Amino acid sequence: MIEAPDLSLAALAPLLFVFGAACVGVLVEAFAPRDVRHPVQVAIALVGTLGGLVTSLLLAGERQVTAGGALAVDGPAVFLEATIAGLGALSLLLFAERSLDPARSAFVAAAAVPAGSPRDRELMTAPRVQTEVYPLATFAIGGMMLFVAANDLLVMFVALEVLSLPLYLISGLARRRRLLSQEAAVKYFLLGAFASAFFLYGLALVYGATGSIRLSAIREASAGEAGGGVLLVLGLALLVVGLLFKASVAPFHAWTPDVYQGAPTPVTAFMAACTKVAAFGAILRLLYVAFGTSEWTWRPLVYGIAIVSMVVGAVLGLTQTDLKRMLAYSSIAHAGFLLTGVLGYGSGPDGTGSGLGPTMFYLLAYGLTTIGAFAVLTLVRDGDGEATHLSQWAGLGRRSTLTAAVMALFLLALAGIPLTSGFTGKFAVFRAAIDDGAWPLVLVALLASAVAAFFYLRVIVLMYFSEPAVDGPTVGVPGLPTTLVLAVTVTATVVLGVVPGAVLDLAEGAARFVG
Amino acid sequence: MSDFPFLLAMIAVPAVGAAAVTALPKGREQTARQLSLGVSLVVLLLAVLATIAFDVGGERFQLTTSVSWIPDFGVDFALGVDGIALVMLLLIGVLVPVVVVASWREEPTGRRSMRAFWAWLLLLESLMVGVFAATDVFLFYVFFEAMLVPMYFLIGSFGGPRRQYAAVKFFLYSLVGGLVMLAAVIGLYVVSANELGEGTFAFDALRQVEIDPGVQKLLFLGFFVAFAIKAPLVPFHTWLPDSGAEAPIGGAVLLVGVLDKVGTFGFIRYCLPLFPDASRELAPYVLVLAVAGILYAALLAMGQSDMKRLVSYTSIAHFGFIALGIFAFTTEATTGAVLYMVNHGIATGLLFLVVGMLIARGGSRLVGDYGGVAAQAPLLAGVFLVAGLASLALPGTNSFVSEFLVLIGSFPTRPVFTVLATVGIVLAALYVLLLYQRTMHGPPRGVLLEPAPEAPAPTTGGGGGATAATATLEAPAAAPARLRVRDLSRRELAVAAPMVALVIALGVYPQPLIDLIEPAVAATMSDVGADPAGVSPEAPVEGTD
Amino acid sequence: MLSQYVPIVGLFALAAAFALFSVTVAPFVGPHRHNRAKLAAYECGIEPVDQPLTGGRFPIKYYLTAMIFIVFDIEIVFLYPWAVANDALGVFGLVEMVVFIGTVFIAYVYVWRRGGLDWD
Amino acid sequence: MSLTHYLVLAAILFTIGAVGVLVRRNAIVVFMCVELMLNSVNLTLVTFARASGTVDGQVMAFFVMVVAAAEVVVGLAIIMSLFRTRRSASVDDANLLKY
Amino acid sequence: MTVAAAADQPTLADFGTDVWWIVLIKIVGVFVVLVLLTLFAIVFERKVVARMQQRIGPNRVGPRGYLQSLADGLKLAFKEDIMPALADKPVYFLAPVLATVPAFLAFSVIPLGPVVSIFGQQTPLQLTDAPIGVLVVLACSAMGIYGIVLGGWASGSTYPLLGSLRSAAQMISYEIAMGLSIVAVFLYAGSMSTSEIVAAQADGNQVSFFGLTFTGPGWYAVLLPVSFVIYVIAVVGETNRAPFDLPEAESELVGGFHTEYSSLKFALFFLAEYINMVTVSALAATLFLGGWRAPWPISIWDGANSGWWPLLWFFLKVVAALFVFIWLRGTLPRLRYDQFMRFGWKVLVPTALVWILAVATMRTVAREADLSTGQVALFVGVPIALLVIAVLLVVSRASNRATRIAATKAAAGSIHPTEAEPEVLPPAGPRRRPAGRTGPSRAEGGFPIPPMDLAVPPSPRLRSREAVAPDGAVVGTGRRSGAGTQEDVDD
C-alpha cells in the first residue's frame, strides 16, 4: 500500500484559489454567451487573484512543507505568492481596460484569423473581444505562485512551464501590430523553450549527482562531499541559466526587448512585474535552500552576471528610442540590481539571508512601479494604437499634466530617487550586498543606476521641457480599471518610498526559508 | 515653547503649501503667488522663533524631533539643529520670501501654469530645511537626493533656452554624486553594525564609531565626492555655470544661495566629524582643489560674457574660500567658512537678483548688451553696486567679515594656500568691478536702446567676448534712440531692500551669527581632533586687501 | 535484464527482411512498359495540377485534431500507471485521478463548446 | 554498455539540439531541436534512475513528456499563426523587431 | 491477485529465458501465423460478404476457392512496379515497410496458450511478454500510422495525401478511445502484461448480490461491457475498416493513401491492414474474452486449458472477432467524415472517461468500505449512472441548441435553414426562364435540379492562355465558343 502524501489544503489555498478561478474561467469560456463573457471573465479572474492574495496573507507566518514535500509554504513563498497575486490582479485590470482603444481592447478578437486578411480588418473595429486571455493569465499567475513555492526541482519545472506557456500565447495576441506581436510570441517561445531545456538538463544532472530533486536533499548531498562534484556544479549552472532567462537577466536577455515591445502592453506589464517576481523567487529558493551550503559554487557566477546585466541594461537602454524597449532594458538592469540582493546571502543557518528580505521587497516595489509605468504607456495613443516612440512623447506634460506627472513619478522610482519605492528597494539590496562584502558590485550598481537614470530623465525632459509635436499622440481618458491600477501603483510607489517600514518588516519577517 | 517641533513645522508647512498650490484650480495665479509668499513668510517666522528658542550654550543638537521611520534599516526621522544648521535655516527663511517676491511677475514659458513653479519652489524649501535639519544620515541622504527633483523641474520647466541640457546635467551630476554617497552611507551603516552590534544612521551614534583608517578614507571619499559636486569644487563644477545660467532667477538664487551650501555643510557636518583621520590626511588635497577653484573660477569669471554665468563662476570661487576655511581645521577659519556660507547666500543671491532685474529689462544675459544703465536707473545701479561690493568682500559688507575670518584662521596652519587664495580676492575685485562698469556706466548700448526706425536691429546675440570697444563703436549708429530702462519698481525694491539691509547689517555687526556658529564649530573641531586654539572670532576687523 | 525483448528484435528482423525484400524485388519481378502517363500523379483522368497541397495549406482542422490528440494521449500516459497501481493507491489515488480527469475534462468541454471537435 | 555511455549519448544529443537551435533558421526545425534537447534529458533521467535504482527519474521523464507535449501544442499554435500570415517559418524573416 | 493460476499458466518470469532455437521457432511461428491468417482473412471476408450479398464469392482457385487470396498475392508480385515522377523516392519506397513491420511486431506479445513442451522445452505459447506488454501493441499500432502518412505524402499526388491525412487524423482520434477503453482492464487486472491479464480472467468472478453469491464469468467483456464496446468500435476505426474506412473511401479519394502504389508495395499495405485486423482481434480476445482460455461450457473440462488445446480456443475467438469485422463491413454503410470524427471525440472519449471513473470509484469504495458488489452497484453505480445520463442529456441539448433555434426560426419562416450561397459570379446572361412567364418552374417545384445556367469559373491555366470573353461574362468550361450565351439570348 502506498502511503498517501500529506496535503494541507489550507496551506495550498492560494494556489487552489487561483487555479480554480482559471478552470472556472475556461468553463465560462465554453458556456457563457459571447456578450456576457467579458465582464464575467474579468470578475472571475479578479476574484481568483484577489482570493489568492487574501488567502496567502492569511497564511502569513506559516512554515511547513506539504504535498509530500513538493511544496514549501514558508515566509518567502507566502510573501511572493501574495505579491504575485496582487500584481497579477493589477495586470488583469489592465487587460480589462476597454475604453482606451477605439478597437475596444488591447487583444485581438480572433487569434486564428491571419493578420492583414479582410476578416482581420473587419474584426479590428468589431466590438468582439478576446476573453480567453483571462483564464490564460490566471493560469500563468497560478504557475508563478507555484513556482515560488516549489520545494522540488520537478515541481519547479512544471510551474515554470505552467507560467510560461500562457505567456507565450498571450504575448502574441495584440490587436494592433499583429505581426509584431506574433513575432514576439515566436521569439519568446523558441528562446523560452530553449531555456527550459537547459533548466531541465540541469535538473537531470543534479538528480544524477545527488539522487534527489528535493531541495533539502540536494542541500544535504552537496554539503556532504565538498560541493558534490562536477555534475552538481554543472547542473546548478544549467538550472540557474534557465531561471535567469525567465528573469531576463543579461546575457540571457535577448528576448526581453523584442517581446516587451511586441506583446500587448498590458501583457508586457504583466510579464515585467509578475514573471520577474516569480523567477527571482525561484532563484532565491534554489540558491539559498538547495545550494546554500555550497555557496562558493554560485557566488562568482551570480556576481559576474549581476554586473553584466546591470551594465547591459543601463548602457543599451541609452540607445533606445522606443519606450517599451527602453523599459525592457530597464528591467534587465533591475534584474542586475536584484541579483545584487541575491548575493547578499547572509549568515543564517536555515537559509535566512540578509539579502532575502530586501530582494523580496525590491521585487514588490519594482513590480508595482513597472506595472504603473506600462499602464501609463497604454494611455498615450495615436491613430495606430499606442504611441511608444520616444519622439511622440515630446511635450506630453502640456497635453496632460497628470499623465506626465504620474509617468515622471514612476520613472523617478525606477531611477531610484529617494522618497520613491525604487530608492528604498535599492537601498535595501545594496545594503545587503555591502553587508556581505560585495563592495565592488555595489559600486558598479551605483554607476549603472546613474547611467540608467539618464534615460529615465530623457523621457522626463521630453515630456516636460520639449515643445509638443504638432500631430503628436493624444492622451486617452482611462476607464475605471486603468484608473484603479494607476491609483494603486502611484500610492504604492510613494508609500513604499516614504513609509516603507511596515512592508519592509513584512518582507524581513517573511525571510526565512523552510526545508 | 522650545517643545514646539519647529523643524518639523518648517518642513511640513511648505510641503503642505506646495500641495495646496497644486490643488488650486486653474487660473488662480494670483492666489498661488500670495499663498506661496504667505507660506514662506511663515517659515521665516518659524526660523526666527526657532533661533530664539535655541540655547546658544546648550546641547549640541537642539529642537530635536525623533520618530522611528524605517526600523528595518535603523532609520529614524530625526531632526535637530546645531548653530551651523540653524543659520542655514535662517538663510533659507530669508531667501525664499525674497525669491517669491522677485519671481512675482515671472512669466511661464509656453502654456504652462505658474502654479507648478510655486509648488516646486515651496517643495524645494521644505526639502532644503530637511537637509539641514536632519540628524540621521539616511534621512539626510533622502532629503539630499529628493531635493534634486524640484530643482530639476524648476530649471527644466522655467529656465532659459538651454534648460533641457542644464537640467539634465544638473540632475546627473548630483545623482552620480549622490549614488557614490549612497554607497558610503550604506558602508557607514555596515561599519556601524560591525562596531556597535546594531547598525545605525544616527549622527550622534556614528560619531562614536571607531573606523579603520583605510575604510575611513573610502567612506570619506564617498561623501566627499557628493559634496564636492554639490558645492562645486573645481573638477566637479562644470554643471553650475550651466544650471546657474539657465535656471530662472529665483531658482538660481536658491541653487547658489542654499542648495550648493549643502555641499559645504556636508563637509562640516559629516566629512569632518565622522572621518576625522581621513579628513586630516586628505585635507591638503582638498585645499589644493579649493585654492585652484578660487583662482581658476575667478579667471574664468572674467572671461564670461553672460552675466548669469559670470555670477555662477564667482560663486565657485567663493566656494573655494569656504572649503579652504573648512579644511584649515581652525575654529576661526571654519567659523568664517560657515559665516561665509550665509553671507555668500545673501550677497550672491542679491547679485543674482539684480542681474535678473537687469535681464528682465533688457531681455539679454550678455554683458555687452548693456551700458550706461546707472544714468537711467540709479537705484538699480546702486543695488548692483552694493551686491557687487559684497561679492568682492569689501570691508563693511557682510562677506568681508567671513572672508577675513577664513584667511586669518587658515594662515597659521596653511600659509601657502592662504596666500594663494588672497590672489583670488584681487581677481574678484577685477571681475566684479568690470561687470559693474561695463553695464552701469559708459554710453548706452545694446538691447537697452530703442532701435531707430531706419537703423538695423541691434545685434543681441554677440558671441562670447562682446567687448566694450565694439559696443561703443556701434553706439553712434543708434544715436537717435533713447533708453527705455525703468528704475526699480516698488516690488523690486521690496526684494532688494531687505537684502541690502542684511549685507550692511551683517557686515557691521556679525556677532550674533558668530555666537550661534562658534560652539558648533568648536564641537566639530574637537570631533576632528584639530587644535582648537586659534585667533578668537572677536579679532579686530581692520585692514583691507 | 532486457532479455524478454530480444524475441521482439528477432521478429523485427524477420519482418523487416520480408518487407524490404518485397519492395526491393518488386521492380525486378514485374514487367516494365514505360509510359509517361503512368508516372503522372493520379487525377482521375484530369490533367494533374502541380502539387496542389504539399507545400501549401492543410485544413487547420487536422492540426487541431493533432493537438487534442496530444492532450489526451498525455492523459492516457498518466492513466495507465495509475490503473495498474490503483489498488495500492487507495482512496487518495482515486481522488487524485478524479481531480486530474476533471481538469482534463474542463479543457475537453472547452474544446467541445468552442467547436474544436466539429468537422464540417 | 555502461550507464556512462547513455549519459554521453544524452549529452551529445543535447548538444546537437542546442547547436541546432542556434544555427537553424526554420522555426519548426528550431522547435524540433528543442524537443530533441528535452528528449535527451529524458534519456539522462532514465539512466540516472537506473543507476540509483529508484523510479524517480522515470516518473520525471513522464512529467517531461507531458510538458513537452504541452509545449508542442502551444508552440505549434504560435508558429502556425505566424506562418499563416507570412507564408514562411524562417526565423530570419521575422525581423520586424529590431533595435 | 487471487488467481488460482494453473501450473501451466505462464508468469512474467517465464519470459526471456528461452533457448535460442525455441525463440527462433516462435518467431517464425508468429510470422507464419500472421501471413496465413491474412490469407485466410481475405478469402474469408470475400466469402462472408458474398454470402451476405446473396453471392457465392470466390470459388475457382483451390478447394472451394480458398486459395484465391494466395493467387491474388502472387499476381500482385508480377504486376508492374510504378514509381510516380513526383514521388519522394526514398520515403515512397520505405513507407510500405514502415507500415508492415510494426504490424508484425504488435503480435509479439499476444499470448496464444499456456506453457507447453516443445521438443522437451517447457515454454509458454507466446513469443514474449513484458510488464508493459499491452503498451508494445499500442506502440506498434501507433508506429504503423507513419507508414500510411508517409506513403500518402510521398506519392506526390492529391488523393493519397488527403487519404493519408484523413487516415492519420482518424487513427489518432480512435487511438484515444481505444487507449481509454483498456484502462479499466488494467484497473481490474492490476497489470499491463498480456499473460497476467489472461490469468486474471481465469477465475470466475465472485459476485455477492445482496446475499446471493454466484460465480460470474471472468471475462472482462462481461465485467466491463462498456469498455469492450468502446474497444470494438475504436479498433474498427483504428484499422480503417468499414464502416470507418474513410482514408480509402473509393467514392471520394479513389484509393486513399495507396492510390499511387502498385505491385508488392501495395500488397504490403494490404498485408499490414489485415495483420492489424488480426492483431486487434487477438488483443480483443486477450483483454476481454479470456485469452486462450476455453469459454465457459468447455472450461468445465479440466484438460481444456492445458496443452495445445488453448491454441484452438484462441484462434476460434480471433476468427469470431474477424467475423464481426466482416459483418460490420457487409452491413453498414460508410460514415461521413464529420460524423465519424464527431462520434469518436464526442461520444467514445467522454463515455470512456466517465466509465473509468465509475469503475475506479466502485472498486475503491468496495475495497475501502468492504461492501459487496451489489451494494456498491446500488449506492455508487446507480447515482453515477443517473449523473452521467443527466449530463449527457444536458450536453446534447446544449450542443444542439443552435440547431434547434434555427429549426424553430426556420419553421416560423424567418430564416432559411441553410445560409444562402454567396453569389460568386454574375449570371452569364439573361435567365433561361424570363420572370414574366407564369407557372411554377421545375426548379421551384419540388425536387432540386442543378441550375441550368451554371457558370463555372475558368481554371487559372485557361485564364492565362486566352482572354476573357469580351462582354465580361465568365466563360464556362466546355462551352468555350459563344454558343452558350447565344443560346441564352435565343430563349
Low-pLDDT segments of chain D: none
- For the report, how would you describe the main beta sheet of chain C? none
Q: What's the level 1 CATH class of chain D?
A: Mainly Alpha
* DSSP, total strands of chain D: 0
CATH topology term of chain D: Helix Hairpins
State the distance separating the first and last CA atoms of chain D: 51 Å
Shape, principal axes of CA atoms of chain D: elongated
Could you report the average pLDDT of chain C, rounded to the nearest whole number? 80
Number of strands of chain C: 0
Tally of contiguous helical segments of chain D: 3
N-to-C order of helices and strands of chain C: HHH
CATH class of chain C: Mainly Alpha
Largest protein-protein interface: C-E, 69 and 89 residues
SS content category of chain C? mainly alpha
Unreliable stretches of chain C (pLDDT < 50, length at least 5) are none
Helix and strand sequence of chain D: HHH
Percentage beta strand of chain C: under 5%
**Binned strand content of chain D:** under 5%
Features:
heteropentamer, D: 99 residues, mainly alpha, Helix Hairpins, 79% helix, 0% strand, E: 491 residues, 2 domains, two-stranded antiparallel ribbon, two-stranded antiparallel sheet, 4 strands, 4% strand, globular, disordered N terminus, disordered C terminus
Give structural notes.
- Chain A: It is found in: Cell membrane; Endomembrane system; Membrane.
- Chain A: Belongs to the complex I subunit 2 family.
- Chain A: It comes from Geodermatophilus africanus.
- Chain A: Residues 150-449 form the NADH:quinone oxidoreductase/Mrp antiporter transmembrane domain.
- The complex is a heteropentamer of chains A (515), B (545), C (120), D (99) and E (491).
- Chain C is mainly alpha-helical and 120 residues long.
- In chain C, 68% of the residues lie in helices and 0% in strands.
- By secondary structure, chain D is mainly alpha-helical.
- Chain D has one domain: Helix Hairpins.
- Chain E is mainly alpha-helical.
- In chain E, α3 packs antiparallel against α4 and α14 packs antiparallel against α15.
- The interface between C and D is small, with 11 and 11 residues.
